[in-house]
Structures are given as C-alpha cells and as structure tokens.
Design brief:
The chain has 357 residues and is mostly helical. The protein has 17 helices and 5 strands. A hairpin with a 4-residue loop joins strand 1 and strand 2.
Length: 357
C-alpha cells in the first residue's frame, strides 16, 4: 500500500482508508513502521476496481484526466485537485467517506529546504523502476499498479527540494499527445480521437464536456446534452449514444435514466443496430468500469431501456451470448453479461411464451 501511495503521490493512509470504506473492512495505519493494512480476504479483480475508483475520484484531474495532481485544502475546507499539467483545479467526490477523513487529516504541507522530500523522491523513483522491471512476474493487481505508476510524474531534485513536474512546452505537448492517445477510455477500442483537421473528435468533446460538469458538481440537464450534441453535429451518430450512457449517468443511473431516455429516443430515431449496440456498449463501460457497484442493477437498467423500445430482443440476446472486448476487456465483459442473466432469462422466457401463444 505504501508503494502504491508513493506512485500516486498520495499519503498512504488515504488509499488504505479508501479500500477500507469500499470493502467494509477494518484498516491498520502504522505510520511509524510504514505499515498500512486492509483486513480480510479479497478478490484481485475487486481490489483492482477499488484502486481504479480511488484514482478516478482522488487522483485524476477533473478536466484533462491527467494524474499529475496535488491535493490541497481550500479556506473553507474543500478538497481541491490542483493539476500540474493543465493548471485546472477540480473537486473530489464530496459525499465519499474518505473526503471527511481527508478534511480531518489534511495532506502535509510542503516546506522549502526539506531534505526528506528529495530523499523520498529518489526512493520513489527507484521503487517505480523496480516495479516496472518485476511486472511480468507479479500478480494481476501489482501489474495494474505498475501501469498506473508509469503515468505518475517522477520527482526531480530542485533547489528547494520540492516535488516538481516538467512544465516545458515540449513536456506539456507530450502529455497532451499521451492524453489524446488514451481516448479509448472514453470510446472503447474503436473510438477515433481526432477528426480530419486533427482536432478532438466531437464525441470526445461531448464526453469531456459532460465530465467537466460532473467535476464541477453541476446538475446536467438532459436537454443541454441533446443541444450540445446538435452543436457538435453528432446528434444522430451511434457513438454519441455510447458517450451519453457511460458519461452522463452516475451511481444513480436508474433514476437518471428517466431524464436520459427521451434524449436517447431523439438520437436513435432510425433504431439501427449500431445505435442499439452503442447503448449496450455504454452500459458495459458504465457498470463494468465507471461504477462497478451498479452491476447488480444492470437487469433493471436493461429492462427500463428495453421497455422504452430502444433495444430489440434479437440484439440483446446476441449481445448476451457473445463476449466482446470492443468496449471493455474480456474479463469485465464476461462479468457484465453474468450480471445481466436475470434479464436475459426473463427475455428468453417471455419470447417462448409468445411463440407458444
């Protein structure tokens, strides 16, 4: 846990407490001996999901999704992620229990001339490099941690011995290029990240616009989403449907669907198979990556969308029996389809009854 925290530039008690809250487990914080423990026996996949959730909520910039952020406390005790890449300041999940814990245990303030920081920086650098070298022999969780660690800026020893980020024009452009290449986090394996003029694809622009609204804790009006897609001239494109499903919906997806369904109806007027597959792909990313806690609710989500006549039986049944890595990796894809089994079973039985009648 200590190595993970250093790689993410966060105090080790923060991810430890986050794991404890998410897993309902007791934790042990021993700063003196550098021991941070989460009690219990837990599956690797679940631990990976929790770590991803911590990174998304308390590490990644709310604007550019870059991990080069620093936690700061505002004068009114709000927690701010100060991004060293794009310069934006975004908030964290205010309702999470960890937010209250951080407010009571704020991140340590940096002091100029503090030699321990330089020593910690060099130690963290060595550890990250060692983690990368050992990735092939470590388990899935550690390998995933290594992948996240590669994106974390390596500290540099400056005159004031503070953690620093290369802000030169070349370095900033390199990070921008890296971010552009990572657009599959928004659109999946086949998402184009730029148009013919080299600009961000309009679907990506829509996703980032929605994410900014979430980061600023703004209530998103479904009508605004529809108007934004029209402004970008992508209202009828099937990938737009995927973006809306996976980006606009949150952990309250079942209630939020009531407002989003009319938007989807406008975007799926032709009822094409591509649009239906994009709906299902967006759901895969929503419950498989963004909010794994929604997996048990997947049958209800599918039922609500199906009853709105946005999905056909044949498309759903084919999706339910064919694992694909188009939107998520195969392990997550399998997990999503297992969670959808109650609805798929109901759909199969309903069709059998219709044929019998």
């Amino acid at each position: 846990m200590s190595d993970v925290a250093k790689a993410l530039a966060r105090p080790p008690n923060y991810p430890t407490k986050f794991f404890g809250f998410e897993l309902g487990a007791q934790t042990t914080l021993d700063d003196k001996n550098d021991r941070y423990i989460v009690n219990g026996s837990h599956q690797v996949d679940r631990l990976r999901e929790v770590l991803d959730s911590f990174i998304a909520k308390f590490v990644l910039c709310g604007s550019c999704k870059n991990p080069e952020t620093e936690l700061q406390m505002s004068k009114n005790d709000d927690i701010i992620k100060d991004c060293k890449a794009c310069g934006k300041r975004s908030g964290v999940d205010k309702v999470h229990k960890l937010t209250t814990y951080i407010q009571k245990n704020p991140p340590p303030k940096k002091k100029k001339g503090q030699g321990a920081h330089a020593e910690a920086a060099n130690k963290a650098t060595d550890e990250v490099e060692q983690m990368e070298n050992d990735a092939q022999t470590q388990d899935d969780l550690t390998a995933r941690i290594n992948a996240e660690a590669k994106a974390v800026p390596i500290a540099d020893k400056k005159a004031d011995n503070e953690w620093s980020v290369d802000t030169s024009e070349a370095a900033v452009q390199a990070r921008v290029n890296q971010l552009s290449e990572g657009v599959t986090t928004i659109l999946g394996q086949d998402g184009a990240n730029s148009d013919e003029d080299g600009n961000d694809a309009p679907e990506s622009q829509l996703a980032l616009w929605i994410e900014e609204k979430h980061a600023e804790d703004q209530t998103i009006n479904p009508v605004d989403i529809l108007n934004k897609s029209r402004d970008l001239n992508i209202e009828q494109k099937h990938k737009t449907v995927q973006v809306v499903i996976q980006s606009a919906l949150t952990q309250n997806a079942f209630k939020e669907l009531d407002g989003i369904i009319p938007v989807l109806e406008q975007m799926c007027k032709d009822g094409s198979e591509k649009h239906q597959k994009s709906i299902l792909g967006g759901l895969e990313r929503l419950v498989g990556l963004n909010y794994p806690e929604l997996l048990p609710q997947l049958p209800k989500l599918l039922m609500k969308i199906y009853q709105a006549d946005l999905l056909e039986e044949e498309v759903i049944q084919h999706w339910g029996t064919h694992v694909s890595k188009k939107y998520v990796d195969k392990d997550v894809s399998k997990k999503v389809r297992v969670s959808a089994k109650p609805f798929l079973k109901w759909l199969d039985e309903a069709e059998s009854e219709d044929e019998s009648d």
